[in-house]
Amino acid sequence: VINPNLKYEKLHVDITKSEYYIICTIDNLKIYCLYLPPTPSLENNLAIQITESIPLSSNVIICRDLNARMGKVTGDSRWNTKETKLCKTIREKGIINWNAKLQYKKYTRINFQVHNNTTENSIVDCFLSSNDLQQPTLTIRDDLAILGSDHKLMTLSFILIDHDVATAYITTFNNQIQEKNLINKLTTYLTYLATIADISSIIIENQQENIDTIEYLTEEFYNTIYYSLNTIITEADYRPKNWKWFWNKSLQGRANFRQACYTRWRKSIGIQSGLWWSRYKAADRDLKKEVKQARTAAYHKFCEKLDDDPTAAIPIVKRIIQSKNKNTHRYTTKEGPQHAVDSMAQYLEGIFDGSNLPKPQNQIIHTTNTTNISNTNTTEPLNTYDFYDCPFTESHIYNAIKRLPNKKSPGSDHITSEMIKPIIDSASTILNHLYRISWITGYTPALWRQSQIVPIYKGAGDQTQPNNYRPISLTSTFRKIMEYCIQDQLYQQTDFINMQQGGFKPKLSAIDHAVVLDELMHRFKTNNNNTPPTVITLDVAKAYDQCPRDTIWNTMHNKNCNPRLLNILKNLFDQVNIQVINGNHQSYNFQPITGVLQGSVLSPQLYSIFINSLPQQLSEIHPVVFGYDSIKNK
């Protein structure tokens, strides 16, 4: 029962989560109304599990009837087994019992027993919360009978502070980290790996155990984020796709009433038919009138928003223009959208399988070995790895998170940059441990190597042909953070790239090469009696997709790049699982044999390593190279 004078508009009651409680959400406050029947209707262990399943964040209050008595904790005269176990849980989690704090020894239930003409008093109802409340008062009424119940009416009053959602999110996240003891687990495991980092034989021997441990720790990290988000942020009510931009629940209610009147008119006979027709026409007029009012009000609200923040007008207008001009075509086939994503996956799998590349004469692939010969004897003291060459530090990770753009599509883990930035301090610490563990073992979590490809139409050619779509990879945000941290070391380790290769290099762009080309053409024309030069351009088709990664790894190995850097790069790109998504449809998974991911931060530099031999072989004619485009000037 909700007081009709309640002033809060954001109110939602959910009765679908459990048969033992309902959830009432008021703004950012969640109230769990919990009832657990007595034993044997509900076993004690199950009652404990139900109670522990309720998330005890800073914005949660529990009003409960557990049919359990706490004895001295609340001032009751008796106790039972169920409440003994519950008291232990409450004490361990630091939960506040407001009945024990504000109304000690005050009974909440009076049961009249007819057989001996006596009354039994007990304290089975109470209010619980994990955080302290502002100016709380608890009243237990003795003068009211609640719908014939033997329970007394209890009123808990306090000042509702509108906590910032981000603050509650951070608090819940940090509490979950402490409860899972996540940082201690990561620190202990990382310390162990650091002591054996120079003995690759031990790491290789225990690699499967390392993989299982890394996946477990990563899953714990993900579960902490998911739990915090689900606890703090109320699930939104999705609007049907047929709703207009000004549509609201009031209009939907009037539309439903009009439809109900129309249905009753169709099924009515006699005098009732005319009555329901009149009601239908009146409901139709009211709906149309309110639609006009809602459209006008929504438009004025939109204009007021632009007036209040003029800087917001530019992106909004830009978005409106783009929505009218944007090509929303999606790749599809006659057989349907599922067949479309599968056929696109088959097409891309054919490109990534390396069948179009010439067979290399030398099949020997260089492998990395981080074994320190002096430390292979395990009887000698082990030197703990000090991460002197590791690109991962908390400050680097912190800056990498800050660099993440907003409003970008996430990977298969559905974690966006907006979810990480509020918890940047704690997340930097955890990611620093996870990244360093991956740095030593050469293994990254599977979710970071899951790529979801979205086919984007290039804007030219037959829209029914898959080769006219550009495969854009959506990867995990945590992979992007890792790549940002690796990027600087990769640039330093690959300084052997030819100066003629200016693609995606720091402080260089296509304009630099355009200026150089223009100067060369002018000089050629001046030195050859105004004879215009001949310019040949080479555009490599499917450059990123068909790039042989073995060539990149061999080049880096021969140039004495950091073996740990090479190991983690090989894991990030060689062990990728690709899945095509288009709308709500997904294809099967496959592994690419060739290519670097379009959309990866590191892909441009890795491709530059591969293409670096081209300007060397064409050095006699001085080509200008940018990415996968090269220009020859004769």
From TrEMBL:
CDD domains: RT_nLTR_like. Gene3D superfamilies: Endonuclease/exonuclease/phosphatase (3.60.10.10). Residues 437-634 form the Reverse transcriptase domain. This is Reverse transcriptase domain-containing protein.
